Amino acid sequence: MANEYIGRRSSFGLAKETTAGTAGATYTYIPMEKVSFQPVPEKIRDGSSYGVIDENYSSITVKQMTELETEGIARELSIGHILLAAFGTVAAPSLVETGVYSHAFTRKNDNSPVTYTVGNSNPVGGERSTYNVLDTFELEAKAADYVRVKTKWKGRKIETGISLTPAFTDENLFTGVGVVVKFASNLA
Predict the structure, then answer these.
(1) What are the Cα distances from residue 88, in Å, to 18, 85, 105, 133?
(2) What is the average pLDDT score of the chain?
(3) Is 156 in contact with 1 (CB distance < 8 Å)?
(4) What's the distance, CA 119 to chain centroid?
């Protein structure tokens, strides 16, 4: 069979868009344990009766979108892109102590979401989708495991034949034993 490869040879990357819907230029490649990059067509159906028992006589594709689902380990640098997509704004890092920085993400409460170009490089070729927004974000921390992240993105139609050159950066991994949860005594 032509064009067959195992999923582990696929590389997933995010590029923040400076103008929503215009492909981002610099990809951050994120190692993930599971990646599903699928086209999602929306169709309208003609259910008219033409003297046959078929429920639908024909259908037309009216919208083509993309869904991306990922699962993997939270990493020190790449988790920032996911948190930015989830919250919308980030303040410049501030030094807490030598080698330790605070990163403050704040919810962006408007109708202009932070958008990303999603790139997928595999042995068959490169593909990308623009105008992706984060639909679902899950973070799980267990004491005897890595901190795990699951995401679901929605964006425009997949473009194929894109030239991508994946490059990964070594990152520290988060473990559940290092997680501290604090609750404020009041809203202030």
Answers:
(1) 13, 6, 7, 10
(2) 88
(3) no
(4) 10
